[in-house]
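Deliverable D4.2, example record:
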Amino acid sequence: MDSTRAPCTDRRDRGAFVSPSRTLSIRRSECLVAFLGGLAALLYSGAINFSGRPFEHHWPDSQNYLAMAQGLLEQATAPFTSRILVPVTAGTIHRTIGADLDLSFFLVSAVAACIFFFFSARMLTAHGVGGVISAALLLIPPTLIPFRDIYLPDAASMAWTALALLIMLGRRPFLLPAVMLAGALTREAAIVLLLVSVWLLLRSGRRVLAASTVAAAVAGLAIVHLYGGQSNAHGMNGALYLLLKPPVLFVENMLGAEFWVGGASRIACARPAIVLDLGSLPLLGHLEQVGLCAPSYKRLIITYSALFSLFGVLPGALLGIVGSRWGQFRDRCPWIFAVIVLGLAMFLMGVVTGRAVERLLIYSWPAFVIGVGVAWAEVGRPHPFAWPVLLTIHAATSWVVFAHDNLIGWDLRPRALVLGLGLLGNVLSYLAFSPHTRIGRLVRPSAPGRHT
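Output generated by the structure prediction step:
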């Protein structure tokens, strides 16, 4: 059989906002996957956050969101002050029903877990991906890590993204502006989702809805701008700070050379290799000295182990499935194409928007969880003999670091180990799924709806 058949050839509908020929009726399998995913997330979150020493597992950013929930806006700094929905909601629950502040944040996370896992499972089953494969794709560390720190907006942002993507697949597109408003109030990453949504809306001829969606996102950004709070940690001009942040973080994360800032609370190194006196410039705030430290292998291992192991062998599978069919997916499957583009954009942004690369890369889940699942359902699956090897390497790369961090403690050694395993696993995964390799020619085309 031909292993290079074009995707989306087995359905009359080939676009976003599907025709009535596709139903999105609720299936028992997606309910079970959503239940298991939500239960796993909440058990993990509860064990961490109500252990008596929760802040050992939290990011430093948490203090900003806690201050915002208590109405202490002057203690929070940008860009955290632009992510108001989760802390304001938790603070409102705390003041309204008298619940403990930690419990209030946990309740917000519980709702986010239900939304994320249920709607993600629906997207997969709508393309014929069965319950077993859906569970294998969804129940992985990147979908659980956001629930470790209940104060961060990561879980809520993932939930709004899942809901928006499902709306673009279903019959209620009029809900998209409201979801986009909520997403913009949750985290500024919603801008990328906005661009993808507008492209799909314009492609389907829904110009008014596209304009409404843009207006809703702009309104959300205007609200967070008016919300106030302190400027960034250096007191720099906001626009200049956003302009300099990506190249600085690229050098730190991808090249391993951290920047040293005179007088900063976080000292990158004791003796910078290069030091530059900036003087007193209003645009730079209280930033007067900056230096560059020697490259650190520790930073490189952290970054590259996350890039090649966080999602196991799924990046290699995505490249193998979609790489040579990029134009076909763009023309025939715009919704799948948009999901993949959204995830890949967030993957690239993960290394230039913050130092917590392992956490920020999680936002690329649409490409590797949904994109791989639905694209795989369109073009076929590898030979059964390939699965044991792929699944073994996938489990090792994606779970070793997660298990070690939570059971033993943070350590660099397992990350160095999975860096090599991740590279090997993704190469094998690419070879297994690509139709242009000898192994990939064993791919067996199968119609959507036949995957267990």
